[in-house]
Design goal:
14 strands; alpha+beta; disordered N terminus; 4-stranded antiparallel β-sheet; 26 helices
Length: about 800
């Protein structure tokens, strides 16, 4: 009777415990689901910069999570709720749909300004003042779907799907370069690991588990988030780590070298000042060029548009995206910045200026990321795919770039551009030119807005160094005066040297060059000139590429191969001359006379002051005054200083970051696995020390049997006595006898109504310890490490 009474009491106690446990489980599920919901909603809002979305629009989703959790067992209520959600959609479909289009437009815009990808923009038919309300209403409706998803993940412990959601969220940030606030990313990792712990330890969900998990989370999240994501695209609220940034740029450069450069032909660094070293030219062939009428050319490769203290950067994706409408229209109208000189020649019908040349480039060892093009380009490039809506360099879209392409050029347009300008200004009122001037005026505005930008520090530096400055509003000083000033200043203050002092860490390149070393080669001179022209109000860009010089084509027959080696690599600056186009300007002393001089015989004449301001008598190879330049370590004025023996595409960043993410996820997974296993060991050890001696002995015996099986001792049949002969053969008779005693004590703990004694417990415990010690002793050091730190046997 007493036995049945105790059973009844125990039954009531268990029911009460289960009821409390269910309430605690529901509370924990609601808490985790709401936290996951809020964090992911805020991540999406932060990633896509959805400023119209107010936090109040999240409340319906939170309420739905609570409803689903509380009424989980009442299916009728859940069905009614889902029917209500569907009815809401039917009744308010026009508003929800317009709100969805508004949100999609914001999402597509965020993707576009970060990647340059052109996505459609949907027409919104509601009034402007209603857009925020409609967007929030639509967002609130679709949060129901998020709430159902997160409720399902948490309620049914779908850890695998949760991990995929987290990884997908981070991959979106990486691929589209849409970075959420780093604290949100940390919280997301934290919640994901909490879900893992919840699944594995649902019955022992204690503060100690949460504390250990939090510690692990903070470490893994910090390292993964900072190293793999945030240092590439830093938030405005913090600065990226310099060391990590340098490592990142180094790895990206190595990846791009492997993709695009077969053999290094020169030591130019595509505008990266941190990697500058002694100038080296190699004799290996960079380009093999065939022309039906050989002509000398500047071949543009890398074009630096944005100056930072450590490098020239390509034009940002946001600029491409925000101006894609302009370029789409200009290209549709036949206006291309790449062949502007050719267009002027054709419109003016100046057949006597230059001649058409068929040209094929076989890129042997030069960087295949760039399509090397001259200023005299007259046709579209063939046999290649390039990045659209770009007025600067042409990028190949292929993974390993392009190495064979053809196009047409007009010879001598750079050296004879004064003739084009003279005719253009004399015939300004010609109806044939109105369309061209209209197109050029739009492109001109874009050029001045984009390519006259100067960092505040550099602008202040030039103010302190130069007496000359552009003081006229909406204009600039004459090109001739500007070019003479830039070249004269660099000649007077700087020395050409092929092995200048490297750029120290945390120093601005321009400040270092102009104030400290005052020595360098083409990269230094071209960078200084580009920034000085911008300071004077003239749009300018930094160029790296190759020269096909008059000496290279001397005595070369039609269709004969022209070998352009690493010795032809060079860096120069180009300026935009109003209504004319981009013109190269040579500012590096040994190169003044390498290219053909500008033909000034047909310099514009007339009374229009604008004509004088539009042209430079200096031209592309330095027609301006050229003071004597001292060149260290080289007496010759030819650019063959040294012969050696021996940024960045978004895809390269994506590859690097994905690899980093996978690496960090692997590390985090390994650490998480280790912590999980160690927690199981800790839980098992607590079972050995529980107050109920019978249960403790059964746990000790079960673990001892596990150790024996781990050692390869497997009994026959279902009886533990079958282990005795095997143990006797391996460990001896005394050990086998003690094992039989342990079996007997365990059977008493399981089946006997009598309580086992502490002495029985101590005997079983010592036998377990002896067994473990025997097994560990028989292993080598690597096997022991595997047992303890990977398999977590003890």
């Amino acid at each position: 009777m007493d036995y049945k009474h105790k059973q009844l009491e125990l039954s009531f106690d268990l029911n009460a415990v289960n009821e409390n446990k269910d309430k605690r489980t529901i509370f924990i599920d609601i808490l985790l689901t709401c936290m996951l919901y809020i964090v992911l909603i805020f991540i999406v809002r932060s990633m896509f910069q959805l400023q119209k979305i107010h936090f109040v629009s999240m409340i319906p989703g939170l309420m739905f999570i609570v409803f689903l959790s509380i009424f989980n067992q009442r299916k009728r209520y859940k069905y009614l709720a889902f029917i209500g959600v569907i009815l809401l959609f039917i009744l308010f479909y026009p508003f929800i749909f317009q709100g969805l289009l508004t949100i999609l437009n914001d999402v597509f815009y965020a993707i576009g300004i970060h990647t340059g990808v052109i996505l459609p923009e949907y027409m919104i038919t509601i009034s402007t003042e209603k857009i925020p309300f409609v967007a929030n209403s639509s967002w609130a409706y679709f949060t129901f779907a998020f709430s159902v998803l997160f409720y399902y993940l948490v309620k049914y412990n779908k850890v695998g799907i949760s991990v995929l959601v987290v990884i997908g969220t981070f991959l979106l940030q990486i691929i589209f370069q849409l970075q959420a606030h780093y604290l949100l990313n940390i919280m997301l990792f934290f919640l994901c690991l909490l879900l893992i712990i919840k699944k594995e330890n649902s019955r022992t969900y204690t503060i100690s588990n949460v504390f250990q998990l939090s510690s692990l989370l903070m470490l893994v999240v910090y390292v993964t988030t900072v190293v793999a994501l945030l240092f590439i695209y830093p938030s405005e609220t913090y600065e990226k780590n310099k060391y990590i940034n340098n490592v990142s740029n180094f790895i990206i450069a190595k990846i791009e070298n492997a993709r695009y450069e077969k053999n290094k032909t020169n030591s130019f660094t595509h505008g990266d000042f941190t990697r500058l070293s002694e100038l080296e030219f190699h004799e290996e062939e960079a380009l093999e060029i065939v022309m039906d009428k050989p002509t000398s050319l500047y071949l543009r490769g890398f074009i630096g548009s944005t100056y930072t203290s450590e490098r020239w950067e390509e034009l940002h994706e946001e600029t491409y995206y925000t101006n894609h409408g302009l370029f789409y229209w200009l290209h549709d109208e036949g206006f291309y910045a790449f062949n502007q000189l050719h267009n002027i020649r054709n419109i003016l019908e100046l057949d006597q200026v230059g001649e058409t040349v068929q040209m094929t480039i076989n890129n042997k060892n030069a960087n295949s990321k760039y399509i090397y093009t001259p200023y005299e380009l007259s046709s579209h490039y063939t046999n290649t795919e390039v990045k659209p809506y770009s007025d600067s360099m042409l990028h190949s879209t292929k993974w390993f770039g392009d190495r064979l392409y053809s196009y047409e050029v007009n010879s001598d347009l750079v050296s004879t551009y004064p003739t084009l300008a003279s005719e253009l200004y004399e015939r300004r009122d010609d109806d044939k030119l109105k369309k061209y001037f209209n197109h050029e005026s739009h492109y001109n505005s874009y050029v001045y807005q984009t390519y006259t930008d100067l960092p505040e520090q550099i602008e202040q530096l030039f103010k302190n160094h130069f007496e000359l400055a552009n003081t006229e509003e909406d204009s600039h000083i004459a090109y001739e005066k500007a070019i003479n000033f830039v070249k004269s200043h660099l000649n007077e203050t700087s020395t050409y040297k092929i092995n200048p002092e490297p750029l120290p860490e945390d120093r601005d390149f321009m400040v270092h060059f102009l104030q400290r070393t005052k020595e360098g080669y083409a990269t230094h001179f071209a960078t200084a000139a580009t920034l000085m022209f911008r300071y004077l109000g003239i749009p300018a860009r930094y160029i790296e590429g190759y020269l096909v010089t008059p000496a290279d084509i001397e005595n070369v027959q039609d269709f004969e191969k022209i070998s352009v080696t690493g010795e032809n690599a060079h860096a120069w600056t180009e300026i935009y001359m109003d209504e004319i186009g981009w013109i190269p300007v040579e500012v590096t002393p040994p190169y003044y006379h390498v290219m053909a001089p500008t033909d000034l015989s047909n310099y514009p004449k007339g009374n229009v002051q604008q004509e004088k301001d539009h042209l430079s008598t200096a031209g592309s190879s330095g027609g301006a005054t050229e003071p004597t330049q001292k060149i260290k370590e080289k007496d010759s004025d030819q650019p063959k200083e040294k012969k050696g023996g021996n940024d960045s595409l978004s895809i390269s960043k994506i590859v690097f970051i994905i690899v980093s993410m996978l690496f960090m996820i692997t590390i985090g997974g390994a650490v998480g696995y280790f912590i999980h296993k160690r927690m199981k060991v800790r839980k098992r050890n607590r079972l050995f020390e529980q107050a109920n001696i019978d249960n403790a002995i059964m746990s000790l015996f079960s673990y001892t049997m596990f150790l024996l099986r781990y050692e390869g001792i497997e009994g026959q049949g279902g009886s533990t006595n079958t282990y005795v002969p095997l143990i006797k053969n391996k460990y001896g008779s005394d050990y086998a006898r003690k094992f039989q005693q342990v079996i007997q004590i365990n059977q008493e703990a399981v089946f006997s109504e009598h309580q086992t004694t502490p002495q029985d417990y101590q005997f079983v415990y010592e036998f377990k310890e002896k067994t473990l010690k025997q097994i560990v002793k028989s292993k080598n050091i690597f096997q022991r490490m595997k047992m303890k730190y990977w398999e977590c046997i003890y």
